[in-house]
Amino acid sequence: PAAGAFAFRKTGAARRRPGTAAQSRQRWRSDGRTLRKLPVHMGLVVTEEEPSYADMASLVVWCMAVGISYVSVYDHNGIFKRNNSRLMDEILKQQQELLGLDCSKYTVEFANQDKADQVLNCQSTLKVLSPEDGKADIVKAAQNFCQLVAQQQRTYTDLDVNVLDNLLSSTNGFPDPDLVLKFGPVDSTLGFLPWHIRLTEIISLPSHLNITYEDFFSALHHYAACEQRWGK
């Protein structure tokens, strides 16, 4: 689906404004409380060719700090997923830098199954996704259901939205995304969770490189002000 355009000032400014880390933490907590609604699950979709681990880690930590429970990180080349240990290391580093002594209050669970040994006490839950978690996951779920029918554990009349949701591995335990921030010039989410974003608000930003907290919070403020009519 095409991403809705949203005007931001030009990126490239310093990522953090002057002020102490304690002041920033206090501001992030209060910002989350002032919003009329906050996404439960946010998707961070990078369509640019050169992803930045540091900038993506900052976005994840900001999500944690304002109170977003589930975060999905996606790039269409699967770079973040192939290098998820590097991303996790950067997130832990940013936690220390941005949250300081408060970092224990904002721990993150790394939900990818192959990195289960890195799960920490959960405040926010993170999944790193790639194109194989999109259409390919739907195909795999359909194949699994057909096998269940062939083994007479299911009948074809059992297939409905909830059954397919349960068969999908990419978002097991995750609600559908409420908000997707799409970064880059491509007017598409490039395969990000096609089954799950039919009701998702999508906001397009020029780039995730050198993104500021002000840009991030402006997107949250825009989302909070949106009236979603659910097709009515």
3D architecture notes:
There is one protein chain. This protein starts with a strand and ends in a 7-residue tail after the last helix. Helix 2 links the parallel strand 2 (41-46) and strand 3. Helices cover 36% and strands 14% of the residues. The chain has 232 residues and is α/β, with parallel strands linked by helices. It has a 7-stranded parallel beta sheet with strand order 1-7-6-2-3-5-4.
Tally of distinct domains: 2
Order of strands across the widest beta sheet?
1-7-6-2-3-5-4
**Do you know the CATH topology of the largest domain?**
Undecaprenyl pyrophosphate synthetase
- Residue fraction in strands: 5-15%
Q: Which blocks of ≥5 consecutive residues have pLDDT under 50? A: 1-18, 113-122
Gap between N and C termini: 19 Å
Write down the secondary-structure element order. Answer: EHEHEHHEEHHEEH
Q: How many beta strands in the DSSP annotation? A: 7
| Structure class | alpha/beta
Work out the helicity level.
25-40%
Instruction: Sketch the major β-sheet.
Output: 7 strands, parallel
CA radius of gyration is: 18 Å
User: Under the CATH scheme, which class of the largest domain?
Assistant: Alpha Beta
- The CATH architecture of the largest domain is 3-Layer(aba) Sandwich
Task: Say which CATH homologous superfamily of the largest domain is assigned.
Answer: Decaprenyl diphosphate synthase-like
**Shape estimate:** globular
